[in-house]
Hints:
By secondary structure, the chain is mostly helical. It has three helices and no strands. The chain is elongated and about 100 Å long.
Amino acid sequence: MKKEQWIEDILNSTNGITPVSPDASLFSKIQQKIRRQDTVSAKTVWLVAASIAVLVILNISIINSKSKTSKDTTTAYLEMTVDQNNQLYQ
């Protein structure tokens, strides 16, 4: 019973408070800042997209060239290790 009364008192504690109205000039300044959103130009977006594409292409080409080099090196090493009679083990 006391708990319910306490909850009711807490809920009713804001009944006598008068709402505060904001200053008109402050409210208009806030609205102006919201309306004035900084936008990014289309030129900047295209430049960023192009630079990302160039980086991706460069990375792919470097990875492909590295894998070809490692395959050639592995094959050359294997050829050098094989004996004259083409036996891997003696």
